[in-house]
Amino acid sequence: MDIEAALEEISRAPNLDSLQSLKVQYLGKNGQVTQAMKTLGQLPPEERKEKGRVLNAWKQALEEALEVREAQLKEQALQARLEQEALDVSLPGYAFPSGGLHITSRIVLELVNIFRRLGFSVVEGPEVESEFFNFDALNMPEWHPARDMQDTFWVELNRATEEAFTIQGPFAEDVSGLGGAVLRTHTSGMQIRYMIQHTPPFKIVVPGRVFRYEQTDASHEAMFHQLEGLVVGPNITMADLKGAISELARGLFGKEGKARFQPTFFPFVEPGVQFAMWWPERQKWLELGGAGMVHPYLFKAVDDYRERQGLPRVYEGMTGWAFGMGVERLALLRYGIPDIRYFYQNRLSFLRQFRG
Ligand code: DAH
Protein backbone atom coordinates (compact mmCIF):
# COMPACT_ATOMS: atom_id res chain seq x y z
CA MET A 1 0.00 0.00 0.00
CA ASP A 2 1.25 3.45 -0.98
CA ILE A 3 0.68 5.63 2.06
CA GLU A 4 1.74 8.85 0.29
CA ALA A 5 -0.83 8.26 -2.46
CA ALA A 6 -3.49 7.44 0.14
CA LEU A 7 -2.82 10.65 2.09
CA GLU A 8 -2.86 12.63 -1.14
CA GLU A 9 -6.18 11.09 -2.15
CA ILE A 10 -7.71 11.95 1.21
CA SER A 11 -6.55 15.56 1.04
CA ARG A 12 -8.25 15.84 -2.38
CA ALA A 13 -11.51 14.10 -1.53
CA PRO A 14 -14.15 16.23 -3.27
CA ASN A 15 -16.91 15.75 -0.68
CA LEU A 16 -17.86 14.11 2.60
CA ASP A 17 -19.28 11.01 0.89
CA SER A 18 -16.08 10.19 -0.96
CA LEU A 19 -14.12 10.95 2.22
CA GLN A 20 -16.27 8.43 4.05
CA SER A 21 -15.56 5.71 1.46
CA LEU A 22 -11.82 6.41 1.70
CA LYS A 23 -12.07 5.99 5.46
CA VAL A 24 -13.79 2.64 4.97
CA GLN A 25 -11.27 1.63 2.31
CA TYR A 26 -8.28 2.11 4.66
CA LEU A 27 -9.52 1.97 8.22
CA GLY A 28 -12.84 0.10 8.00
CA LYS A 29 -13.28 -3.40 9.37
CA ASN A 30 -12.06 -4.81 6.06
CA GLY A 31 -9.91 -1.81 5.28
CA GLN A 32 -6.36 -2.20 3.99
CA VAL A 33 -4.62 -1.02 7.20
CA THR A 34 -6.98 -2.99 9.47
CA GLN A 35 -6.43 -6.14 7.42
CA ALA A 36 -2.66 -5.70 7.41
CA MET A 37 -2.71 -5.34 11.22
CA LYS A 38 -4.59 -8.62 11.52
CA THR A 39 -1.76 -10.45 9.75
CA LEU A 40 0.90 -9.11 12.15
CA GLY A 41 0.51 -12.18 14.45
CA GLN A 42 1.80 -14.50 11.74
CA LEU A 43 5.07 -12.59 11.36
CA PRO A 44 8.28 -13.40 13.19
CA PRO A 45 8.67 -11.21 16.33
CA GLU A 46 11.36 -8.74 15.12
CA GLU A 47 9.57 -8.20 11.80
CA ARG A 48 6.21 -7.92 13.63
CA LYS A 49 7.55 -5.12 15.79
CA GLU A 50 8.89 -3.13 12.86
CA LYS A 51 5.76 -3.66 10.67
CA GLY A 52 3.50 -2.90 13.67
CA ARG A 53 5.23 0.40 14.24
CA VAL A 54 4.86 1.34 10.56
CA LEU A 55 1.18 0.34 10.43
CA ASN A 56 0.41 2.33 13.57
CA ALA A 57 2.12 5.37 12.10
CA TRP A 58 0.07 4.98 8.89
CA LYS A 59 -3.12 4.59 10.82
CA GLN A 60 -2.44 7.71 12.78
CA ALA A 61 -1.46 9.66 9.67
CA LEU A 62 -4.60 8.50 7.86
CA GLU A 63 -6.83 9.43 10.82
CA GLU A 64 -5.30 12.86 11.02
CA ALA A 65 -5.61 13.41 7.25
CA LEU A 66 -9.26 12.29 7.35
CA GLU A 67 -10.00 14.66 10.22
CA VAL A 68 -8.32 17.61 8.53
CA ARG A 69 -10.10 16.99 5.23
CA GLU A 70 -13.44 16.55 6.97
CA ALA A 71 -13.04 19.88 8.71
CA GLN A 72 -12.12 21.55 5.42
CA LEU A 73 -15.11 20.07 3.58
CA LYS A 74 -17.49 21.06 6.37
CA GLU A 75 -16.18 24.60 6.36
CA GLN A 76 -16.59 24.79 2.59
CA ALA A 77 -20.16 23.56 2.83
CA LEU A 78 -20.91 26.13 5.51
CA GLN A 79 -19.45 28.96 3.43
CA ALA A 80 -21.46 27.87 0.41
CA ARG A 81 -24.63 27.79 2.44
CA LEU A 82 -24.00 31.19 3.97
CA GLU A 83 -23.41 32.62 0.54
CA GLN A 84 -26.56 31.08 -0.83
CA GLU A 85 -28.75 32.11 2.08
CA ALA A 86 -27.33 35.59 2.42
CA LEU A 87 -30.04 38.24 2.77
CA ASP A 88 -29.48 41.29 0.64
CA VAL A 89 -31.35 43.95 2.56
CA SER A 90 -30.89 46.41 -0.28
CA LEU A 91 -33.08 44.39 -2.66
CA PRO A 92 -36.61 45.71 -3.17
CA GLY A 93 -39.18 43.79 -1.11
CA TYR A 94 -42.15 41.84 -2.37
CA ALA A 95 -44.98 44.02 -3.61
CA PHE A 96 -48.10 43.27 -1.61
CA PRO A 97 -51.16 44.32 -3.58
CA SER A 98 -53.03 46.89 -1.56
CA GLY A 99 -56.53 48.24 -1.91
CA GLY A 100 -57.35 51.86 -2.40
CA LEU A 101 -60.25 54.25 -2.28
CA HIS A 102 -62.66 54.20 -5.20
CA ILE A 103 -62.62 57.33 -7.32
CA THR A 104 -66.13 58.19 -6.08
CA SER A 105 -65.02 57.98 -2.45
CA ARG A 106 -62.06 60.22 -3.24
CA ILE A 107 -64.23 62.91 -4.79
CA VAL A 108 -66.76 62.69 -1.94
CA LEU A 109 -63.96 63.11 0.61
CA GLU A 110 -62.47 66.00 -1.30
CA LEU A 111 -65.83 67.80 -1.45
CA VAL A 112 -66.77 67.05 2.12
CA ASN A 113 -63.40 68.23 3.43
CA ILE A 114 -63.78 71.58 1.73
CA PHE A 115 -67.10 72.05 3.55
CA ARG A 116 -65.70 70.78 6.84
CA ARG A 117 -63.18 73.60 6.68
CA LEU A 118 -66.13 76.00 6.36
CA GLY A 119 -67.67 74.57 9.52
CA PHE A 120 -70.31 72.32 7.98
CA SER A 121 -71.43 69.09 9.62
CA VAL A 122 -71.48 65.96 7.46
CA VAL A 123 -74.59 63.81 7.78
CA GLU A 124 -76.02 60.88 5.89
CA GLY A 125 -79.52 59.57 5.31
CA PRO A 126 -81.27 56.36 4.28
CA GLU A 127 -81.28 55.16 0.69
CA VAL A 128 -84.79 53.77 1.05
CA GLU A 129 -86.80 56.94 1.48
CA SER A 130 -90.43 57.80 1.97
CA GLU A 131 -92.45 59.51 -0.70
CA PHE A 132 -93.00 62.32 1.79
CA PHE A 133 -89.31 63.17 2.30
CA ASN A 134 -88.20 62.47 -1.25
CA PHE A 135 -91.06 64.37 -2.93
CA ASP A 136 -94.04 65.85 -1.06
CA ALA A 137 -92.26 67.92 1.56
CA LEU A 138 -89.92 69.20 -1.17
CA ASN A 139 -92.87 70.81 -2.93
CA MET A 140 -93.05 68.06 -5.51
CA PRO A 141 -96.70 67.05 -5.45
CA GLU A 142 -98.04 63.88 -6.95
CA TRP A 143 -98.46 65.27 -10.43
CA HIS A 144 -94.83 66.43 -10.62
CA PRO A 145 -92.99 65.03 -13.66
CA ALA A 146 -89.99 63.94 -11.58
CA ARG A 147 -92.27 61.43 -9.87
CA ASP A 148 -93.01 59.74 -13.14
CA MET A 149 -92.72 55.96 -13.09
CA GLN A 150 -89.84 56.42 -15.55
CA ASP A 151 -87.62 58.07 -12.98
CA THR A 152 -88.32 56.43 -9.68
CA PHE A 153 -87.68 52.99 -8.26
CA TRP A 154 -90.63 52.22 -6.03
CA VAL A 155 -89.97 49.80 -3.21
CA GLU A 156 -92.54 47.45 -1.77
CA LEU A 157 -93.55 48.71 1.63
CA ASN A 158 -92.93 46.22 4.41
CA ARG A 159 -91.57 46.33 7.94
CA ALA A 160 -87.94 46.60 6.81
CA THR A 161 -88.44 49.31 4.19
CA GLU A 162 -90.74 51.22 6.52
CA GLU A 163 -88.13 51.05 9.26
CA ALA A 164 -85.48 52.24 6.83
CA PHE A 165 -87.22 55.53 6.26
CA THR A 166 -88.90 56.04 9.61
CA ILE A 167 -87.30 58.75 11.65
CA GLN A 168 -85.94 57.15 14.79
CA GLY A 169 -86.04 58.58 18.29
CA PRO A 170 -88.86 60.76 19.57
CA PHE A 171 -90.46 60.76 16.12
CA ALA A 172 -90.60 57.02 15.65
CA GLU A 173 -94.34 56.51 16.16
CA ASP A 174 -95.87 58.21 13.19
CA VAL A 175 -95.22 56.96 9.69
CA SER A 176 -98.73 57.67 8.53
CA GLY A 177 -98.68 60.34 5.87
CA LEU A 178 -95.17 59.47 4.75
CA GLY A 179 -96.55 57.67 1.72
CA GLY A 180 -94.85 54.80 -0.10
CA ALA A 181 -91.20 53.84 -0.20
CA VAL A 182 -88.76 54.77 -2.96
CA LEU A 183 -85.05 54.48 -3.57
CA ARG A 184 -84.20 58.14 -3.09
CA THR A 185 -83.92 59.91 -6.41
CA HIS A 186 -81.80 62.69 -4.89
CA THR A 187 -80.24 63.62 -1.56
CA SER A 188 -82.59 66.60 -1.15
CA GLY A 189 -84.93 64.55 1.05
CA MET A 190 -82.32 64.85 3.79
CA GLN A 191 -83.03 68.57 3.91
CA ILE A 192 -86.47 67.76 5.30
CA ARG A 193 -85.29 64.95 7.59
CA TYR A 194 -82.59 67.09 9.08
CA MET A 195 -84.81 70.15 9.57
CA ILE A 196 -87.45 68.08 11.32
CA GLN A 197 -84.94 66.91 13.89
CA HIS A 198 -82.89 70.06 14.38
CA THR A 199 -83.37 73.65 15.42
CA PRO A 200 -81.66 76.28 13.26
CA PRO A 201 -79.10 77.71 12.76
CA PHE A 202 -77.10 74.90 11.17
CA LYS A 203 -75.08 74.08 8.06
CA ILE A 204 -74.78 70.57 6.72
CA VAL A 205 -73.60 68.64 3.70
CA VAL A 206 -75.02 65.23 2.80
CA PRO A 207 -73.11 62.89 0.52
CA GLY A 208 -74.95 59.82 -0.69
CA ARG A 209 -76.08 57.36 -3.29
CA VAL A 210 -79.16 58.09 -5.36
CA PHE A 211 -81.14 55.99 -7.81
CA ARG A 212 -82.97 56.69 -11.04
CA TYR A 213 -85.05 54.27 -13.05
CA GLU A 214 -83.52 54.91 -16.44
CA GLN A 215 -82.03 53.45 -19.52
CA THR A 216 -78.28 53.51 -18.90
CA ASP A 217 -75.90 55.00 -21.44
CA ALA A 218 -72.60 56.88 -21.46
CA SER A 219 -74.06 59.69 -19.39
CA HIS A 220 -76.80 57.90 -17.40
CA GLU A 221 -76.49 55.36 -14.62
CA ALA A 222 -79.29 53.95 -12.51
CA MET A 223 -77.17 54.65 -9.42
CA PHE A 224 -74.88 57.58 -8.80
CA HIS A 225 -73.87 59.97 -6.01
CA GLN A 226 -74.81 63.46 -5.01
CA LEU A 227 -73.66 65.97 -2.49
CA GLU A 228 -76.39 68.07 -0.92
CA GLY A 229 -75.84 71.22 1.10
CA LEU A 230 -78.21 73.05 3.42
CA VAL A 231 -77.73 76.17 5.51
CA VAL A 232 -80.55 77.61 7.62
CA GLY A 233 -80.51 80.55 9.99
CA PRO A 234 -82.11 83.88 10.76
CA ASN A 235 -80.36 85.94 8.08
CA ILE A 236 -79.07 83.62 5.41
CA THR A 237 -78.92 85.18 1.96
CA MET A 238 -78.23 84.36 -1.66
CA ALA A 239 -74.86 86.13 -1.22
CA ASP A 240 -73.90 83.47 1.35
CA LEU A 241 -74.80 80.81 -1.21
CA LYS A 242 -72.66 82.47 -3.87
CA GLY A 243 -69.83 82.77 -1.36
CA ALA A 244 -69.98 79.10 -0.42
CA ILE A 245 -70.14 77.82 -4.01
CA SER A 246 -67.25 80.16 -4.92
CA GLU A 247 -65.25 78.77 -2.03
CA LEU A 248 -66.02 75.27 -3.27
CA ALA A 249 -64.76 76.31 -6.73
CA ARG A 250 -61.52 77.59 -5.21
CA GLY A 251 -61.17 74.43 -3.13
CA LEU A 252 -61.53 72.26 -6.23
CA PHE A 253 -59.76 74.34 -8.86
CA GLY A 254 -57.37 76.63 -7.02
CA LYS A 255 -57.51 80.30 -6.16
CA GLU A 256 -58.59 81.27 -9.66
CA GLY A 257 -61.66 79.04 -9.41
CA LYS A 258 -64.98 80.89 -9.35
CA ALA A 259 -68.72 80.25 -9.56
CA ARG A 260 -71.41 81.35 -11.98
CA PHE A 261 -75.20 81.26 -11.38
CA GLN A 262 -77.92 81.08 -14.02
CA PRO A 263 -81.59 81.21 -13.09
CA THR A 264 -83.54 77.98 -13.34
CA PHE A 265 -86.39 76.15 -11.67
CA PHE A 266 -86.41 73.56 -8.90
CA PRO A 267 -89.61 73.07 -6.89
CA PHE A 268 -87.79 73.29 -3.55
CA VAL A 269 -85.94 76.58 -4.05
CA GLU A 270 -86.96 80.13 -4.93
CA PRO A 271 -85.14 81.66 -6.60
CA GLY A 272 -83.39 78.66 -8.11
CA VAL A 273 -80.14 78.57 -10.05
CA GLN A 274 -77.91 76.18 -11.85
CA PHE A 275 -74.30 76.75 -11.05
CA ALA A 276 -71.10 76.28 -12.96
CA MET A 277 -67.49 76.49 -11.82
CA TRP A 278 -64.61 78.04 -13.69
CA TRP A 279 -61.79 75.60 -14.34
CA PRO A 280 -58.77 77.86 -14.84
CA GLU A 281 -56.49 75.16 -16.19
CA ARG A 282 -58.81 74.38 -19.08
CA GLN A 283 -60.40 77.83 -19.34
CA LYS A 284 -63.93 76.44 -19.24
CA TRP A 285 -67.11 76.46 -17.19
CA LEU A 286 -68.29 73.16 -15.71
CA GLU A 287 -72.04 72.85 -15.06
CA LEU A 288 -72.08 71.02 -11.77
CA GLY A 289 -75.41 71.36 -10.01
CA GLY A 290 -78.46 73.23 -8.80
CA ALA A 291 -79.03 75.54 -5.87
CA GLY A 292 -81.21 78.29 -4.51
CA MET A 293 -82.94 79.81 -1.53
CA VAL A 294 -84.98 77.27 0.44
CA HIS A 295 -88.61 77.55 -0.67
CA PRO A 296 -90.89 78.74 2.17
CA TYR A 297 -93.07 75.71 1.42
CA LEU A 298 -90.35 73.48 2.92
CA PHE A 299 -90.17 75.42 6.18
CA LYS A 300 -93.95 75.23 6.45
CA ALA A 301 -94.05 71.49 5.68
CA VAL A 302 -91.36 70.87 8.30
CA ASP A 303 -93.04 72.99 10.99
CA ASP A 304 -96.41 71.36 10.24
CA TYR A 305 -94.82 67.94 10.67
CA ARG A 306 -93.14 69.02 13.90
CA GLU A 307 -96.41 70.39 15.18
CA ARG A 308 -98.14 67.06 14.47
CA GLN A 309 -95.40 65.46 16.58
CA GLY A 310 -96.02 67.92 19.41
CA LEU A 311 -92.83 69.87 18.76
CA PRO A 312 -92.50 73.66 18.53
CA ARG A 313 -92.44 75.42 15.18
CA VAL A 314 -88.90 76.76 14.75
CA TYR A 315 -88.63 77.74 11.08
CA GLU A 316 -90.78 80.86 11.05
CA GLY A 317 -88.58 83.85 10.26
CA MET A 318 -85.76 81.64 9.03
CA THR A 319 -84.14 81.71 5.61
CA GLY A 320 -81.73 79.26 4.04
CA TRP A 321 -80.04 78.03 0.94
CA ALA A 322 -79.44 74.62 -0.52
CA PHE A 323 -77.48 73.07 -3.32
CA GLY A 324 -77.12 69.67 -4.90
CA MET A 325 -74.42 68.39 -7.23
CA GLY A 326 -73.42 65.18 -8.98
CA VAL A 327 -70.28 63.52 -7.67
CA GLU A 328 -69.57 61.35 -10.73
CA ARG A 329 -70.32 64.33 -12.94
CA LEU A 330 -67.46 66.27 -11.39
CA ALA A 331 -65.11 63.31 -11.90
CA LEU A 332 -66.26 62.78 -15.50
CA LEU A 333 -65.56 66.36 -16.45
CA ARG A 334 -62.35 66.75 -14.54
CA TYR A 335 -60.70 63.55 -15.73
CA GLY A 336 -62.32 63.39 -19.15
CA ILE A 337 -63.90 60.00 -18.45
CA PRO A 338 -66.00 59.17 -21.51
CA ASP A 339 -68.60 56.88 -19.91
CA ILE A 340 -70.25 57.02 -16.47
CA ARG A 341 -70.78 53.25 -16.57
CA TYR A 342 -67.02 52.72 -16.06
CA PHE A 343 -67.39 53.77 -12.42
CA TYR A 344 -69.20 50.66 -11.29
CA GLN A 345 -67.98 47.93 -13.62
CA ASN A 346 -65.17 47.12 -11.19
CA ARG A 347 -62.58 47.05 -13.93
CA LEU A 348 -59.26 47.42 -12.14
CA SER A 349 -57.51 48.87 -15.17
CA PHE A 350 -59.95 51.79 -14.97
CA LEU A 351 -60.06 52.14 -11.20
CA ARG A 352 -56.28 51.94 -10.72
CA GLN A 353 -55.81 55.16 -12.68
CA PHE A 354 -57.34 57.04 -9.77
CA ARG A 355 -55.46 55.50 -6.89
CA GLY A 356 -53.69 58.77 -6.23
N1 DAH B 1 -82.10 67.53 -6.18
C1 DAH B 1 -81.72 68.13 -7.44
C2 DAH B 1 -81.46 67.04 -8.46
O1 DAH B 1 -81.32 65.91 -8.11
C3 DAH B 1 -80.46 68.96 -7.28
C4 DAH B 1 -80.70 70.19 -6.47
C5 DAH B 1 -81.08 71.36 -7.09
C6 DAH B 1 -80.53 70.18 -5.10
C7 DAH B 1 -81.30 72.52 -6.36
C8 DAH B 1 -80.75 71.31 -4.35
C9 DAH B 1 -81.12 72.50 -5.00
O2 DAH B 1 -80.58 71.35 -3.04
O3 DAH B 1 -81.30 73.63 -4.27
O4 DAH B 1 -81.41 67.34 -9.62
TrEMBL record:
Keywords: Aminoacyl-tRNA synthetase, ATP-binding, Coiled coil, Cytoplasm, Ligase, Magnesium, Metal-binding, Nucleotide-binding, Protein biosynthesis. Its cofactor is Mg(2+). Pfam families: Phe_tRNA-synt_N, tRNA-synt_2d. Mg(2+) binds at E270. It catalyses: tRNA(Phe) + L-phenylalanine + ATP = L-phenylalanyl-tRNA(Phe) + AMP + diphosphate + H(+). The keyword Coiled coil applies. Residues 100-352 form the Aminoacyl-transfer RNA synthetases class-II family profile domain. GO terms for cellular component: cytoplasm. InterPro entries: aa-tRNA-synth_II (IPR006195), aa-tRNA-synth_II/BPL/LPL (IPR045864), Phe-tRNA-synth_IIc_asu (IPR004529), Phe-tRNA_ligase_II_N (IPR004188), Phe_tRNA_ligase_alpha1_bac (IPR022911), Phenylalanyl-tRNA_Synthase (IPR002319), tRNA-bd_arm (IPR010978). PROSITE patterns: AA_TRNA_LIGASE_II. Belongs to the class-II aminoacyl-tRNA synthetase family. Phe-tRNA synthetase alpha subunit type 1 subfamily. Tetramer of two alpha and two beta subunits. This is Phenylalanine--tRNA ligase alpha subunit. It comes from Meiothermus taiwanensis.
